Amino acid sequence: MVGFETRYLEAQRLKRQAKKSRPSCLNRNEPNKFAAAAVEQRELVRKRLEEGYELRFAREVGGRIRQPFSEFGLRSEENFVLKYFVSLVPRGGKARASDDKANLAVQTRSKLLTLDYPYVELNHEFMAALRVDCDGIFNSPETCEAALKEVVRDGSIPCLPHIIVGDLMDDGTFARPHFIWLLPYGSAVWRSDDERCRKGPVKLFDAVSRGLAAALLDLGADPAVPTMTGRMKCPTSPVWCTRTPNPDIWPTLAEYAEYVDTRVARAVLTRRAAAVQCGLGLTASNRVFEVLRTEGQRLLAEWHFGADARMRHSRGALADHLHSALDAFVEKAGLSAEGVGYITSKVSDYLVAHFDPAKLEGKAVNRGKLLDVVCGLETVKERQKAGGQYAGTMKGISTLNRLVDAFQRLQAAGETITQTAVAAASGISRRTAVGRWAEIVEAVERNKLGCENCCIDKKGWGNPAPPDTADIRNLQVTMAQPGLTGDSSTVRQVVEYKRKEHQASSKTDVLLREAANEVRWNRHQVGTRLHIGNVIERITRANPDQPRLDAAAVLAMVECPPPMDPDLVAILAMIEDMAQRQMAA
What we know:
Blueprint: H1 7-20, H2 33-51, E1 53-55, E2 59-61, E3 64-66, E4 69-71, H3 80-87, E5 97-98, H4 111-114, E6 119-121, E7 126-127, E8 129-133, E9 137-138, H5 141-153, E10 163-168, E11 174-182, E12 189-190, H6 199-215, E13 231-233, E14 241-243, H7 253-259, H8 266-278, H9 282-305, H10 315-333, H11 340-353, H12 371-374, H13 380-413, H14 419-426, H15 430-435, H16 437-454, H17 469-479, H18 489-503, H19 507-521, H20 528-542, H21 551-559, H22 566-584
Antiparallel strand pairs: 1-4, 2-3, 5-6, 6-13, 7-12, 8-11, 9-11, 10-11, 10-14
């Protein structure tokens, strides 16, 4: 038995040998940094429980400079809604938090101290919190809660949020709150790469989040924010103003789905939010959104394939870079207008949040491009009909532009212009060129007239002084005298006066006639009623100082042009009668 040792004795011997072989810097005489950090953390927790939260000096927290303040106690101590929220935050060492929403990280191993940070990330494997970001600014927290009660009363959402957390400004306004709905205990949605994880509940969770955002668009809800990350303003942080208006009603995910629209796509929601909150109207905002979206996608693709340093930053920093680039594009393109800045922000956030390099190679679906065309149409058949009309319109306009360009190229080259030559130069069939020849000639004349007008130094708009009505009446009496011919200076004077009288009409009437003429000219390209809205939008943008034209008035003028002035009609008839008498004599 000599030399024999049990396994226990062997383990003890190896342990003693390992202690002897440790480096000298780790001997017991030097302090252990991990033990020191644990002692310091315990002291911070003790002070937080006994003395409360204290911001000792002014610094930037949550997006703005905060002045020193203190708050005693824990917000979740007597509030079971907040206690439930605390249970959704991962334990110490796994919970991520930050002073800003872009750069979340593990700040401390203490969950108590983590919940004091302004932004926190919930457990994103078991999701039980539906969050809606709101960009609105309310007069007070009470005003915000009252606005939400109106939405509940309308039946758009089943209940009030369980938690409302936002920034209470120095002037008393309540800015950019987060609305948080909590699922009942035990109803969390499991989200994992495990093959046993069902994807249906995860998709329903995302769809309900979109539906809640759609119901709150009028309050300033931001649908472009990702819903699966679990990042939100922390309601237990003393930095924010927190309210828990709904401790009693706890719907399940399926019950939420019965109230909200779960079919709407996030891209369409983002366009609607831009239209509602920028103040430009659906048609104008959707056109601006489409232009900025195309440019933003081009920039992201260029930065990605060019290995640009901006692509290595966080998504928040990348959104800032894209916003700056789109601002420069807007200024260069002359799109600057009130409300365009908001659309730029929405486009930047949406493109960065949903940027996927794997999709750059394929053909992407552009959802919501025709939102202004199909708005208000309920059935699929109506939407398909409107989409087909729009596609036909765009194709007709493109064809006409190609024919006009070919006509002008031949004209500039001094070649003989025939229908066959224009068709060959444009690459369009001769039958189409023959059928639209009148439109081609009219478009060329319009372009020529517009070019000549651009070369004239135009004076400011001003209504000429109307002629004296008494003088016109006297001249009309004089015209009744026998022997007066159409070449008489008196007749020419009356006609000139009446012409000036017509020119003295208001600018609104002129714009109305312009709209009616444009609609008549484009009637072959698109249905009249569908085209009137686009014409009114263009004229309104070109004449911001004038009231918006009424669609019904434009349609009435298109169908039945206004008659000429009766006095002028009588004078012209009199001139024609005198000319016939003179010819008969």
